[in-house]
Design a protein that fits this description.
By secondary structure, this protein is α+β, with helices and mostly antiparallel strands. It folds into two domains: about 10-100; about 100-195, TATA-Binding Protein (2-Layer Sandwich). The protein has helices at about 10-40, 45-65, 75-100, 100-110, 145-155; strands spanning about 120-125, 130-135, 155-160, 165-170, 175-180, 185-195. Strands 1-2-6-5-4-3 form a six-stranded antiparallel beta sheet. Strand 5 (about 175-180) and strand 6 (about 185-195) form a beta hairpin. Helix 1 packs parallel to helix 3 (about 75-100) and helix 2 runs antiparallel to helix 3 (about 75-100). The longest helix has 28 residues, at about 10-40. The chain is elongated. The model is unreliable at about 10-15 (pLDDT under 50).
């Protein structure tokens, strides 16, 4: 026999490919959607909404491709994840940086940092400007007194003071200096934004 006229048989793997494809892609896309949703707890704004929307829409495209038994469906979660990551990076680099306005940066620059430290402000959407730096544990007790003197010297009004936190305002700007671990810490966090 030459095999002419015999229909080719499909292997078990080929028959189950659409089911495997459906399960793999649906789980992957559900993961992208869930991760994008959970990231929204710290990521707000139109970029998050766009990332969530594209994850849902590409989930619909995925279902169409799976029903057509197209192996292209495997690419959908990868494309969706890439779009979500791209929108998140755009958010971090553009929207968050814009939250730290030049007016706030200039006001914060009036206050000299603790000797031996460098303070660089970055933007965070819900905070405005934020700087984090560490000091030796032996110097943490001098952080709040140093910034109290600096604020007073530059005409800032002390709005609140505790052993591990100092709040000062000037014009429409508010700065908060925090030493989260107290005298045993080493981390210093400074937030600066428009006074609300």
């Amino acid at each position: 026999m030459t095999g002419e006229g015999v229909a080719p048989t499909r292997t078990r793997l080929q028959r189950s490919a659409p089911l495997v494809l459906l399960v793999l892609t649906a789980l992957a896309q559900a993961g992208v959607l869930l991760l994008t949703f959970v990231m929204g707890l710290m990521w707000v704004g139109w970029t998050w909404a766009a990332a969530l929307l594209q994850a849902v829409l590409l989930g619909g495209v995925l279902l169409v491709l799976v029903t057509r038994r197209s192996w292209l469906a495997l690419a959908v979660p990868l494309i969706s994840a890439a779009i979500s990551v791209g929108l998140f990076l755009f958010f971090v680099n553009v929207e968050a940086d814009a939250a730290c306005t030049s007016e706030v940066r200039e006001a914060a620059a009036q206050v000299k940092p603790l000797p031996g430290t460098t303070v660089t402000f970055d933007g965070e959407v819900e905070v405005g400007c934020i700087a984090r730096f560490t000091v030796p544990a032996s110097k943490t007790a001098s952080v709040i007194p140093h910034y109290r003197r600096e604020f007073t010297r530059h005409g800032w009004e002390i709005a609140a003071e505790e052993s591990d936190e100092l709040v000062a305002t000037k014009d429409r700007i508010r700065m908060i200096v925090m030493v989260p671990g107290g005298a045993e810490g080493g981390l210093v966090v400074i937030e600066a934004d428009h006074n609300s």
